[in-house]
Specification:
single chain; alpha/beta; TIM Barrel; binds zinc ion; 2 domains; elongated; five-stranded mixed β-sheet
Length: 239
């Protein structure tokens, strides 16, 4: 066995671009998969037994610091279907949690994400809150600082916090962490146009929420409905 090559045997290897291969071997050469196929075709160094090997999962949209919501309102792990109700709980949690509790939540949720086989996340976070956990973890990522606010004062505040964090992460930090930084203007109903324009002008990777639920479509099309009442209730509505 060459030092940089390892061939493992498993009950299944799932190449994804083809059907799963039963009783299979996979050869790892340095950072890459060098070969995979039936176990009968190659000697193996290590037999992993009754497991399936498959590529790491990509989670293209996470909010790691919101993991305290994982247990659900009644501790059962289930959530109501009403997404406005869910949004109210998200806001309540964000407003009641300290920065430290949100950072700890990001760490816990990231650990669970990695345990589940995820090797890449695109995480939206408040002023880079999830960055320290992600940068220290064996996972690749794009970490988006969220900017939000229809009213100018709120927009200025979240924009300043986002850019303060962006300025603190040097290019060599990103290379070392296998992670990039970006900006996430939250959503068209929550974020002023100038914040979108500034994010685009930054040249950074961008992420935004576009009509995740029917209530948002109704708000964008007719300026009314449950989303409007929700935004009025939390003091975020701007005529
Ligand atoms: Zn989201």
């Amino acid at each position: 066995m060459r030092r940089d090559t390892l061939t493992v045997r498993a009950r299944y290897v799932v190449p994804v671009e083809g059907a799963p291969i039963a009783d299979a071997c996979l050869t790892i050469q340095g950072p890459r998969v060098g070969w995979l196929g039936p176990a009968a075709d190659r000697r193996h160094d290590l037999d992993l037994g009754n497991v399936a090997i498959l590529p790491g999962f990509v989670n293209a949209h996470t909010h790691l610091e919101l993991s305290p919501l994982a247990d659900g309102p009644d501790g059962t792990g289930s959530w109501p279907e009403d997404e406005i109700d869910w949004l109210r709980r998200v806001i309540a949690q964000r407003r009641s949690g300290s920065d430290e509790s949100l950072r700890q939540a990001a760490e816990r949720n990231l650990a669970a994400t990695i345990r589940s086989g995820t090797t890449f996340v695109a995480d939206s976070t408040t002023a880079g809150m999830s960055w320290p956990a992600i940068a220290a973890a064996p996972i690749r990522a794009v970490v988006f600082a969220e900017v939000i606010g229809l009213r100018r004062e709120r927009g200025l505040h979240t924009d300043a916090a986002a850019w303060e964090w962006l300025a603190s992460v040097r290019p060599e930090n990103q290379i070392a962490a296998c992670a990039r930084v970006g900006l996430s203007p939250h959503a068209p109903y929550s974020t002023a146009g100038w914040l979108y324009h500034k994010a685009v002008a930054s040249g950074l990777p961008l992420s935004t929420h576009l009509a995740e639920m029917p209530e948002e479509l109704r708000l964008l099309a007719y300026h009314d409905g449950p989303m409007r009442r929700f935004l009025e209730d939390i003091g975020a509505w701007d005529d």
